[in-house]
Amino acid sequence: MDLQPLYEVKERLERAAVAGTGLLGEDFRLKRALEGLAPLAAASPVFAKIHAGVEALLSAPPEQRGGALLDALALVDAVAYTQAAVGMPGALEPLPPGTGTCQDVSYSQLHPLLEALTGTGGGRFNVVQETYENHPEYFSDYRVLPALVQGLGDSYGKLAEFNAAILSRQGPGVAPLLEEGFDPAGGRAMARRVEVLAQAAGAQANDFYLTQLPQAKEEVRLALIVALGHSPANAPLLLTLCQTEGKGAGRNLAWRALAQLDTPEVEEALLTLSRKDWWEAVDALSYSDTPLAGRLTAQLFLQELAPFEAQPDTPITAKTQPRLAALSKALDGKAGPEVCQFHRWAADVYPITTYMPTKNGEEEKLLFSHALAPQEGVPFRKLIPLVLTHTLMGRPDPQLCRLSIALQEQYGRDFLAPALAARLILQGPEACYPWAEEQLFPNGPGAQPQEAAVSAFRAVLGNLHWDEEAAVYWFAGLWSPLLRQATHGPVPLPPLDRRWFDLLLQAGDDLYEPLLNLLRGRRDLGLSQAFLARLYHAAQRMTIYPLEQAIEILGGLGWTDWDGFVVRCLQGEMAWSSYWTVYDVLNRLPVPPEEKLRQLRELTRMWSEDELDVAGGWPRDLVQSYTKKWEKEIRDRGGEAHD
Question: What is the DSSP letter of 141?
Answer without folding.
Answer: B
